[in-house]
Design brief:
729 residues, alpha+beta, Aldehyde Oxidoreductase, domain 4, 3 domains, seven-stranded mixed sheet, five-stranded mixed sheet, 19 helices, globular
Length: 729
């Protein structure tokens, strides 16, 4: 077992300082002299062992790695554990993973400042942190062995959890040296391996650690949670965004067998019962009247029309709304040459996770405040829970479970479904566990969505058919405005993927501006965020320009990348072209489309092979090349690219959330069809060798498939795609 360095870990109750800090945080005040981590972790009682917050070593030498990031299908459990195991030289077969507790001071995402998973940062932000943790633990064992055997530490080696000294023939497992190693102070800057010495990272040995549990049903999700006295709650939400409860009649609801209470909360009316069925029946019997005086009046069609008009310079802008520049170079307004103009429209999109939102909360009683939930951002959930329960953020315990997908949905500044559950549990009180259940219809209708977006562009070409001047207008809702992470300038998430594009860098004159109107429709990041629309616009436009110039799409891109100095783009494009047989004839009836895009630090090139069957594109094969820096787990990278490709293809072909007069129309998969297994292409993934630090993998595969398919359709039919989805229900 580990020797604990936190000698005060067993005490209970908040200190006076913690109470002051926590009260300041809950009330929104700024407390001088405390770091953000101190504030966010106020009240936490996490124990730290001798090997630090990420590693625990048992008496038999087994290694447990604590994962500060949620595991919701992306495979971080294995990838993060492999980083530690590599530097520790642990026996990979004896390495297990546990979810780290919620504690922003110990487990903050180093790129975000809070404990959270998102932006494809799990591996990149943990890379050096976990390498150092593993290397420091290794040094503690070699130091303990050197002291015990009275030999030079430099002569000691470690392999598969066994510490050895060749000259003396002595060796011992981690368990045998545990007591001595636990007394050694870990080095602050331990010596790290060179890439050439890696024996685990980058190999097919790094496979998922959670597959068996998920295959056998052992893995625990929120819906699986059972506790003594557990109650189930469902919420009647407003039918239109922005509407509020003006009154309700719960007489019939309370007559339903099993219903124990009906509670009004800020977002609606909750029915609490002894079973999910009783709660749903109680909600059906509930009569709620809504104040819709401040409800969102517009629907998708009206919003799209407004956006198009503003982008074209028609109609007055609302007060305080203005165009903001995201890219500018030279004068894009004048000059001679052929002109290409186009507009592109993208709908609202649901995250459509296979597991709808849910949460278990306990407030009061001897246990304090506890959440049992798949939390994508424990720190945000702690902060929002603390405000409701009036407690210290760090004292909000979170048992973090597996999640059936998220794609960004489980992390938002309001902790919406978690906050609902806490409000209900607080009203119920006495520490009674309350499980909030959202049905599929609740999940689809309550938000949040990828914003509806409009692009308008005008490109003037030079004599060789390359862009000489590029005017670009984007209209979309901001994801960050009004949030704790609101930027001082533009919200880059609205235009990431266009801003800084190598195509802009290769164009002498650029005028890029974005308009970010406010609507009542709640929006949120969606897998690959701004790149979900900017990649399509940039890559499909480039293909059309290549056709106008009479040039091969790959050669046209390579020329632009050369001008921009985009060496990584060149490398992945060449690799994808080679592996797809771009220079060879396609199979009969098949056309190929190509696209290249950088997002979350990684560059992906894809070639899609498409057949047109009864006017509908059928994607058979997708060849992907990715530069994501050091590849921790090639097998998992391939899985992520495959999953991201299918997710993006679903949005390309089918997905569209229709809103009418501020109300969601499509509330289940019958009206919001997602990609079926029969539509999924064969995806080949090729990883560019690299010794650079790892970059994102979870999202970069998503934005590229859409334009690759559209470009294949363009090659087959001569018709461009200016609106998604391609197949409109």
């Amino acid at each position: 077992m580990n020797a604990h360095v936190d000698t005060d870990a067993a005490r209970t109750g908040a200190t006076r300082r913690e109470l002051v800090v926590g009260t300041a945080l809950v009330s929104g005040a700024l407390l001088v002299g405390c770091s953000p981590a101190d504030l966010l972790a106020a009240g936490a009682k996490t124990e730290v062992g001798a090997f630090g917050p990420f590693i625990r070593i048992a008496a038999d030498g087994a290694v447990t790695v604590f994962n500060k990031h949620i595991e919701f299908g992306q495979g971080t459990h294995a990838g993060l554990a492999a980083i530690v195991a590599e530097e520790l030289d642990a026996d990979w077969s004896r390495v297990s993973v546990e979810q780290a507790p919620a504690n922003a001071k110990l487990y903050a995402n180093t790129l975000m400042g809070v404990q959270g998973t998102g932006g494809s940062t799990a591996i990149p932000n943990s890379w050096m942190q976990l390498r150092k943790a593993g290397a420091a633990a290794r040094a503690m064992f070699t130091g303990a062995a050197a002291a015990a055997w009275k030999v030079p530490e430099a002569e000691i080696t470690v392999k598969d959890g066994v510490v050895s000294h060749a000259a003396s023939g002595k060796s011992a497992g981690f368990g045998e040296l545990l007591q001595g190693a636990s007394t050694i102070t870990p080095p602050a800057e331990p010596k790290l391996k060179s890439h050439a010495d890696f024996t685990l990272i980058g190999t097919d040995r790094v496979r998922r650690k959670d597959s068996r549990a998920k295959s056998t049903g052992e893995a625990r999700y929120t819906q699986d949670v059972k506790m003594e006295g557990l109650l189930t709650a469902v919420v009647a939400h407003a039918p239109r965004f922005g509407a509020k409860v003006s009154g309700f009649d719960d007489a019939e609801a309370r007559k339903v067998s099993g219903v124990v209470d009906v509670i009004q909360i800020p977002t609606g009316v909750a029915v609490v019962a002894r079973s999910t069925w009783a709660a749903l029946q109680g909600r059906n019997a509930l009569k709620v009247t809504w104040d819709e005086s401040k409800a969102e009046p517009l629907g998708s069609a009206e919003i799209e029309a407004k956006y198009a008009g503003w982008a074209a310079g028609k109609g007055a802008l609302p007060e305080k709304l203005k165009w903001e520049t995201f890219e500018t170079r030279g004068d894009a307004s004048g000059g001679e040459g052929e002109v290409f103009e186009a507009t592109y429209d993208f709908p609202f999109l649901a995250h459509a996770t296979m597991e709808p939102m849910n949460c278990v909360a306990q407030v009061g009683g001897k246990g304090g405040v506890k959440l049992t939930v798949a939390s994508q951002s424990p720190t945000l959930d702690q902060m929002n829970t603390a405000r409701i329960a009036m407690t210290l953020p760090g004292s909000v315990q979170i048992e973090n479970l597996f999640a059936g997908g998220s794609f960004g949905r489980r992390a938002n500044f309001q902790s919406d479904f978690v906050a609902e559950c806490v409000h209900i549990a607080k009203k119920v009180g006495k520490g009674t566990p309350v499980k909030l259940v959202w049905t599929r219809e609740d999940d689809m209708a309550a938000g949040y969505f990828r914003p509806l977006t409009h692009h308008r562009l005008r490109v003037r070409l030079d004599k060789d058919g390359f862009p000489a001047a590029w005017t670009h207008r984007v209209v979309t809702q901001s994801l960050m405005k009004g949030s704790p992470m609101a930027p001082k300038g533009i919200d880059s998430s609205t235009v990431e993927g266009a801003m800084g594009s190598p195509y802009f860098k290769a164009t002498p004159a650029v005028d890029g501006q974005v308009l970010m109107p406010e609507l009542g429709v709640p929006v949120l990041w969606w897998r690959s965020v701004g790149a979900t629309h900017t990649a399509f616009v940039m890559e499909h436009t480039i293909d059309q320009l290549a056709r106008k110039a009479g040039k091969d799409p790959v050669a046209y891109r390579l020329a632009l990348f050369e001008k921009a100095g985009a060496s990584r783009h060149i490398a992945v494009l060449k690799l994808a072209a080679e592996k797809s047989g771009w220079d060879k004839p396609a199979p009969a009836g098949v056309t190929r489309g190509v696209a290249v895009h950088e997002s979350f630090g990684s560059v992906v090139a894809q070639v899609a092979e498409v057949r047109i069957v009864d006017g509908v594109p059928k994607v058979g094969r997708v060849v992907s090349a990715i530069d994501c820096g050091t590849a921790i787990s090639p097998d998992q990278i391939a899985a992520q690219v495959e999953g991201g490709t299918c997710y993006g293809l679903s949005a390309t072909l089918h997905d569209e959330m229709i809103i009418k007069a501020g109300a969601v129309e499509r509330r289940n998969f019958d009206a919001y069809p997602v990609l079926r297994n029969s539509e999924a292409p064969t995806v080949e993934t090729y990883i560019l060798p690299s010794t650079n630090p790892p970059s994102g993998v979870g999202e970069p595969g998503t934005p590229v498939i859409g334009p690759a398919v559209a470009n294949a359709v363009l090659a087959a039919t001569g018709k461009a795609t200016f609106r998604l989805p391609m197949i409109r229900a």
